[in-house]
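Example with several molecule types.
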Amino acid sequence: MRQVIYISTATSQAGAVDASAILAVSQRNNGRDGLTGLLYSDGKRFLQALEGEDAVLSRALARIEKDPRHRAIVILSDRDVPAREFGDWSMAHRAPGTDAECFLQRVADLVATASPQVRATFTGFAEVRRAA
Ligand SMILES: Cc1cc2nc3c(=O)[nH]c(=O)nc-3n(C[C@H](O)[C@H](O)[C@H](O)COP(=O)(O)O)c2cc1C
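Resulting structure tokens for the full complex:
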């Protein structure tokens, strides 16, 4: 099982990118492909974790990397995991303007069983965004 975590920057000029459209397509495709993970977005930055079989994950990443709605993709982690660390979620997401504390708690719950490195990545990113 491969797990990839990356951050990227939204390219939308007119404010927040439409994350709900990204989410709808992701949930459909990822459900079909057996991919799970987490998408964090505050409208300006993305943080995504994706887990699944190597070949399908590579194909999804190839599509995602070409997507003009974001740029400056930086892979934070790319490794084999013995089992999924993001449970059965096909994609979890926080839209800008929704309750940050509530979302952070959900993220914390989701990554509770993840490796310390993954937990630190997510909580660190979320804290930085809250402080910004
Ligand atoms: C930040 C970000 C995350 C995305 N995550 C996924 C994803 O997890 N799965 C997926 O299939 N597409 C994802 N997409 C969308 C893909 O870039 C692409 O538009 C989509 O896979 C095309 O699917 P289609 O060929 O079925 O229309 C993401 C796009 C962005 C900007």
